[in-house]
Design a protein that fits this description.
alpha/beta, Aldehyde Dehydrogenase, Chain A, domain 1, seven-stranded parallel beta sheet, four-stranded parallel beta sheet
Length: about 450
């Protein structure tokens, strides 16, 4: 792990194993050093073999399990500061580590080890009339900058995917997770060194100064792509300031549409899980759409489930009437509600005439993240899949499955609702680019 700049948080000076930087608090110089060392490390990572990169990941998984007690202690420091600072419940939820979360991080790293290495793969080869053979080869992107809030697990997920795909990465986690992230970054650096790879292939920006973010996204000479993972305000800021291309999603306004041909029990189970399994994630349902023919049968039962779990309901006139008739509170939804990512126990509900109106609503108000239909009508499902313009579109499944781990990617470096380069959960392949390779036999062009 790279050395921190001087005079940061008090915790920096309490770490005797940390060497003070020679930059004497010069943040611009520190970030330039981080960029330069990342660029140098990227060259070594791109040429390292699969066996060596997998060895680093295997060692990382071992160290995560062995350091469980220390990780929980560091996380408790972060949680104490976050609670004192009045951090939102959704962010505290993302910040929290427990033994299960640490084991999941280790398992995620091991799953990445098992994935096929995309680096150097040659594909789409074609023989041309001239005699040359043209193909494409997957190559690392180079240096990936990742900016995120809370979520210490992102530190490990991002590092694992960057290592496996032959990239170097610069991690800038949120100040609220600084103790957890410092320890995780040290474990990653030690695992890299144990495998004979550069410790600086994964660097944590070791300062809570927000100005570091502005410097990181303005270093195209060192950084090839930025992956922001955070709230809408962070993403909007980076969209204004970044001089480096980004893989991003702005927010997650996700929908579940219960079709007239849905199995009622399945629909209730999915709509409950999509909203209440976890509130503070980008793949949580924020708007429920219900077809008018089944609304009177499904909404009251769902309303009772939500009410028991403390979910605030906001609905259109039809939804309100159906819910209030059975004693379930539901306030009037506003136009803004249809566009809102709550990340909280709040749900918007709209009763629609049918499939066409549901698709129109999703494409009008959604964020192109994840949307699901519950139906036994294959034609309706096929139309929903074709016409809903989102990165993940699902049939008869909870939106909470829109996740790199659940998609078999091992982990994800982020989710993109853009249409260029990568879309949806971004795993190994999303961290590579392609170059053309040409095989000839002495051909010359006339």
């Amino acid at each position: 792990m790279n050395a921190p700049i001087t005079a940061l948080a008090p915790s920096d000076t309490e770490r005797p194993d940390r060497v003070q930087s020679t930059f004497a608090g010069d943040l611009a110089a520190y970030m330039d050093q981080v960029g330069r060392t990342a660029r140098a490390a990227a060259g070594a990572m791109a040429t390292a073999g699969t066996t060596q990169r997998n060895a680093a990941l295997t060692e990382l998984a071992r160290r995560l399990r062995a350091s469980q007690a220390a990780l929980l202690a560091a996380n408790r420091q972060d949680l104490a500061r976050a609670t004192t600072a009045g951090l939102a419940a959704a962010l505290i939820d993302r910040l929290t580590l427990d033994t299960k979360a640490i084991e999941q991080m280790a398992e995620g790293v091991e799953q990445v080890v098992k994935l096929a290495d995309p680096v150097g793969v040659v594909f789409d080869a074609r023989d041309m009339p001239s005699g040359i053979r043209v193909a494409k080869m997957r190559v690392p992107l180079g240096v990936v900058g990742i900016i995120y809030e809370s979520r210490p697990n992102v530190t490990v997920d991002a590092a694992a995917l960057a290592i496996k795909s032959g990239n170097a990465t610069i991690l800038r986690g949120g100040s609220e997770a600084i103790a957890s992230n410092r320890l995780l970054a040290d474990l990653i650096a030690d695992a890299l060194a144990a495998a004979g790879l550069p410790r600086d292939a994964v660097q944590l920006v070791d300062t809570t100064d927000r100005a570091a973010v502005g410097l990181l996204v303005a270093m195209p000479q060192y950084v090839d792509i930025i992956v922001p993972r955070g709230g809408k305000g962070l993403i909007e800021r980076l969209m204004r300031e970044s001089k480096v291309p980004m893989i991003k999603h702005l927010d997650g306004v996700c929908h579940v549409y219960i079709d007239a041909a849905a199995d009622a029990a399945m629909a209730i189970r999915i709509a409950d899980n999509a909203k209440t399994q976890r509130y503070g994630t980008c793949n949580t349902m924020e708007t429920l759409l219900v077809a008018q023919p089944v609304a009177a049968r499904i909404l009251p039962e769902l309303g009772r489930i939500y009410a028991a779990k403390g979910v605030e309901l906001r609905g259109d006139d039809t939804a309100r009437a159906l819910l209030q008739a059975t004693g379930i509170a539901c306030s009037a939804a506003t136009e803004e509600d249809w566009r809102t990512e709550y990340l909280a126990p709040i749900l918007s509900i709209r009763v629609v005439a049918g499939l066409a109106e549901a698709i129109k609503h999703i494409n009008t108000y959604g964020s192109k993240h994840t949307d699901a239909i519950v139906t036994n009508d294959e034609a309706a499902a096929a139309r929903f899949l074709r016409e809903v313009d989102s990165a993940s579109v699902m049939v008869n499944a909870s939106t909470r499955f829109a996740d790199g781990f659940e998609y078999g990617l091992g982990a994800e470096i982020g989710i993109s609702n853009d249409k260029l380069h990568a879309r949806g959960p971004v795993g190994l392949e999303g961290l590579t680019s392609v170059k053309y390779v040409v095989y000839g036999h002495g051909e010359t062009r006339g």
